[in-house]
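Bit of a strange request maybe. I'm writing a small parser for structure token strings and I need a real example to test against, not something I typed by hand. Could someone generate the tokens for this chain?
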Amino acid sequence: MKHFFSTRVRVVLVIAILLAVGLAVISDLTGLSVPDMVVKGVLTPIRSGASRLADGAQRIYNYVFEYESLAAENAALKEQLAEMEDEARRADSVSRENSYLRSVIGLKENNPSWELVDAYVISRSSQEWSSTFTVSRGSNAGIKEGMCAITANGEVVGLVSEVGSNYAQIKSVMDSSLEISSTISASGYNGMVQGGYASGLNGLLRMNYLPSSAVIRNNDQVVTSGSMVYPRNLIVGYVVDAGFDDAGVAKYALLKPAVDVGNLELVFIVTQYDAG
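Reply from user aminoacidic:
Good idea to test on real output. This should exercise your parser:
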């Protein structure tokens, strides 16, 4: 046991001597005193750790600040986009209204005897045999039953079938009970146009009583012949097909309506016109 401790003491002494010599050499080379080197050796890891903590804190601060900045920018961009969309909707509305007004002006210039009342569509009703919609003007605006409704482009919409003081119900061209005396513009053939609901031709009109010898071409325009109800040359639709009736003695034509009743926003009621 004595021998063991004496050996340990010797080892410790050797290490202490080597350490002292090493410190002396380093001190001589660096110009630092031994206590300075000890302090520096102890503080350097602490300083390094503190520096890393400070860098991490700075990165976290930068991230949070950048996130808040991006969030604020995102909110501002969303608000700006909403304003732009609102302006676009207003511009689109104004553009449509201007287009309507230009069309109405043209309609009035070409038909100076016509009196028109504009009305917005407020509801629609389509059943197996009928197609009607309601507009926002009625007898207070001079609208009466039996007056025809058209678009700003002179297309047939339908016929007024019921009137209140501030509303009117219009039976559309798609209604199977409505018949319109019409003419194929290119050829002059006359017939009666009826809504396709009665014969299961949803979305189409049928022009009946055409001569068996009639030459009918696709895309031929069909217009009103003129009557006490419908002014002359209102656009009814365009031919998409033709054939013979069940008796085989007359032809019929299928028409695509000139107006899409389901997407109407504004119509014009012809309250007065010169039938001559």
